[in-house]
């Protein structure tokens, strides 16, 4: 039975990319509706085709992850676009994105743009943050305000992967995607000065070939709330906290008031940056105070 990957879902049809690089328009079998499973863009599927144009999806293979916004499955990596200025670089917002990405078992790549627009002191401060994130195990890139510079550094990283672009509003994610793939013509809007954040229009999700990889044409993570995370999950979403926690005296240590906590010791010694630990505590409190859903 032929296999393929859903690269677009529109009006009840699923467009499946086969190993032969053909795209077959398929419908889902009624069995999915009964099981309350919806095929998603990114799904690896088994299908049956009556001809070169049309077919039916018979089975969805197990997903390694699944996002709600944008609705997409089996994402390999998230390219997080943050700017050094306009809007200013924010570690709190970056850590929020990283937690959501880590929780969904997606590999993050941090890209800080507009580095040519900051003074020497600010530049050094942001580079120091970059070193902290690299020490925690993240891949960090720095680019100038020229979109072409970002493209040159990002293109090799897209090869063979399914990627989503996410990050601060107003940093030019859509502009970058338009330069990567000029026929995309994604709508871009300047930052709304009233709200201080960017606006973008979301359409159906589609995976497009860029370089030798597939990229979702919709910026990801429109909701940044920790709706699914439990308090004990948070530990695993900060790699350096997870590593240090292996030496905590108590299993299930939340690194708050517990005695002989290796994480707090690592913060005191400077092995874990204090701002990362502060964000961890802030997010933990947020999860704790979350209203139950019924």
UniProtKB/TrEMBL annotation:
EC number of this enzyme: 3.6.1.-
UniProt GO molecular function: GTP binding; GTPase activity; metal ion binding; rRNA binding
Cofactor, free-text remark: Binds 1 zinc ion per subunit.
UniProt keyword annotations, A-Z: Cytoplasm, GTP-binding, Hydrolase, Metal-binding, Nucleotide-binding, Ribosome biogenesis, RNA-binding, rRNA-binding, Zinc
Domain of life of the native organism: Bacteria
Stretch forming the signal peptide: none
Cofactor(s) needed: Zn(2+)
Positions of the CP-type G domain: 64-224
Chain sites annotated for binding GTP: 113-116, 167-175
Binding site for Zn(2+): 248, 253, 255, 261
GO terms classed as biological process: ribosomal small subunit biogenesis
Stretches assigned to the EngC GTPase domain: 73-222
Chief location: cytoplasm
Localisation: Cytoplasm
Gene Ontology CC terms, in alphabetical order: cytoplasm
Enzyme class: hydrolase
Pfam families: RsgA_GTPase, RsgA_N
Reported function: One of several proteins that assist in the late maturation steps of the functional core of the 30S ribosomal subunit. Helps release RbfA from mature subunits. May play a role in the assembly of ribosomal proteins into the subunit. Circularly permuted GTPase that catalyzes slow GTP hydrolysis, GTPase activity is stimulated by the 30S ribosomal subunit.
Family: Belongs to the TRAFAC class YlqF/YawG GTPase family. RsgA subfamily.
Quaternary assembly: Monomer. Associates with 30S ribosomal subunit, binds 16S rRNA.
Protein name (database record): Small ribosomal subunit biogenesis GTPase RsgA
């Amino acid at each position: 039975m032929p296999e393929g990957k859903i690269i677009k879902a529109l009006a009840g049809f699923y467009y499946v990319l086969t190993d032969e690089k053909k795209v077959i328009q398929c419908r889902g079998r009624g069995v999915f509706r009964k099981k309350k499973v919806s095929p998603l863009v990114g799904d690896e599927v088994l299908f049956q085709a009556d001809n070169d144009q049309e077919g039916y999806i018979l089975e969805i293979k197990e997903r390694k992850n699944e996002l709600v916004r944008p609705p997409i499955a089996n994402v390999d990596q998230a390219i997080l676009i943050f700017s050094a200025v306009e809007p200013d670089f924010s570690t709190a917002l970056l850590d929020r994105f990283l937690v959501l990405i880590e929780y969904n078992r997606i590999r993050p790549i941090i890209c800080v743009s507009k580095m040519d627009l900051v003074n020497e002191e600010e530049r050094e401060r942001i580079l120091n943050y970059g070193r902290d994130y690299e020490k925690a195990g993240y891949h960090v890139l720095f680019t100038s305000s020229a979109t072409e510079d970002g493209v040159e550094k990002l293109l090799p990283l897209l090869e063979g992967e399914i990627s989503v672009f996410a990050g601060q509003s107003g940093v030019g994610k859509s502009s970058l995607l338009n330069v990567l793939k000029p026929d995309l013509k994604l709508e871009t809007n300047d930052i709304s000065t009233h709200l201080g954040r960017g606006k973008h229009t979301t359409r159906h999700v589609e995976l497009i070939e860029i370089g030798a990889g597939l990229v979702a044409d919709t910026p990801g993570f429109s909701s940044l709330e920790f709706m699914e995370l439990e308090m004990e999950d948070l530990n695993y979403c900060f790699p350096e906290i997870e590593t240090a926690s292996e030496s905590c005296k108590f299993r299930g240590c939340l690194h708050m008031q517990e005695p002989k906590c290796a994480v707090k010791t690592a913060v005191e010694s400077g092995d874990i940056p204090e701002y990362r630990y502060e964000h961890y505590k802030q997010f933990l409190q947020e999860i704790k105070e979350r209203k139950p859903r019924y």
